[in-house]
Amino acid sequence: RFSLFSKPSARTTSIKASIASLPREYGYVELVAALWPLVNVFMGTMVGKARKLYGVEYPLLYREYKEGDAKWNADSNVYNCVQRGH
């Protein structure tokens, strides 16, 4: 039975002890876990903009290189770097 004045259970004490044993820097792990979805959305947006700019249609993931066309290959390299960075 629950009571505000009862002693904490062994499980509660064990959880508190586990949390207290974590290193102080563990907060950085939680920060990364919380911010990762935002970074993923940002990178997805960058890939979408690059797709539109360089004319890469779905379902292609990467832009092919053309032999002898330096401008096309430079643009392909930029797009492919954005896609791989995502």
Task: Annotate the secondary structure layout.
Elements: H1 10-20, H2 26-54, H3 70-85
Helix pairs in contact: 2-3
Description:
With 86 residues, the protein is mainly α. The chain contains three helices and no strands. It has helices at 10-20, 26-54, 70-85. α2 runs antiparallel to α3 (70-85). The radius of gyration is 25 Å and the shape is rod-shaped. The model has no long low-confidence stretch (mean pLDDT 86).
* Unreliable spans: none
What average pLDDT do the residues reach?
86
| Fraction of residues in helix | 55-70%
Gyration radius, rounded: 25 Å
What would the principal axes of the Cα set say about the shape?
rod-shaped
**Major sheet description:** none
List the helices and strands in order.
HHH
Offer a quick outline of the entry.
This protein has 86 residues and is mainly α. It is built from three helices and no strands.
Task: Name the descriptors.
single chain, 86 residues, mainly alpha, 3 helices
